[in-house]
């Protein structure tokens, strides 16, 4: 079997990494706007400032790649590649600057009207992430984010505002980006937990409230337009046992369940899985969960499942003691000697994508989309302006081949939106030098550059892939 005729080929970005214009037209500050730049090469992580000091520090999201003022040019380039779908996020603080206002900001709503109209001009379907690490800073500072149940209502109002405004322009929606970040300690901040130290009970209570917010949005969206397709989005880290020792296999099963399956089970099946209930009991985590909550989770299950896939990792029983750790955007793990690594130390595993698609589909049997996948690398501009990113072409070629094999296995895969289809700032460090795009943007790690767009070799290669519906993967 090959890719279905209506397969959704495209690309993905996030508002906080590309839009810029952080305080333009009434936009408020999000948590992302408080992240300073860091550097992988200097081994410095992004600092989070409660008070923004632009005189002293550089905050990459404040300018991004200025998609806010370049969206027509960028969408024209997406159309030239042949995109069928473009995954983007809406900046919550463009619509509700503080998150708790009574009325939305019309200038923000109009901006996305203009973006959707531009996409429609080229026949490109928008795939909208409602919340992609865009929590209003005000909600974190004054409500402890989603730890406060009032934030459920704030999110529902925000989502409903979008559904009503764009009910005839957007069909595909995602409620929260990489929601399973909330199971990890360093995922607390994106859920608004940054004022103090928070207990594990508070961490999971905030995540529970996010589940409820997502479910409310699904219910509201389907009432506004029954044709809406509303999905979940998880960061999927494929895990293999380091060895066939039963202890390594068991450790892998446990890590996989908590990180990869827990949130999907709640959003697709509408209930907490047994292993998390037991985890809460063992760790004295007592959540406020009402019967009404349980009924809402059942009613608000998603229509389809989407995920990010960049790499795989290995798990060992003695993981904490080992020195052969691997890199990754969420999860270290142990290195796999059978895989090569990217410039950022991420293990490249195309076959793992086929394995993962089968794993997810066998568990949920709902349509799937790979909404993030790609290779972050250093790109070199030649004297003639060309960028010969054959390494990126090779990465995508191998992953697309494995997606086609997964379809042949029987997986209902409906779309593919590679991450950072245009260069944007890194979520992890704020760098520009970690480039993913088919389109190069003249911007450096300090925010210097003309912002001029240019086509990489992979631009032309992906164009032929889409034109042939995945049949022509040959080198240029």
TrEMBL record:
Coiled coil: none annotated. Keywords: Glycosidase, Hydrolase. One of its GO terms (molecular function) is hydrolase activity. Gene3D superfamilies: Glycosidases. It holds the Pfam family Glyco_hydro_1. Belongs to the glycosyl hydrolase 1 family. This is Glycoside hydrolase family 1 protein. It comes from Enterococcus larvae. The lineage of its organism: Bacteria, Bacillati, Bacillota, Bacilli, Lactobacillales.
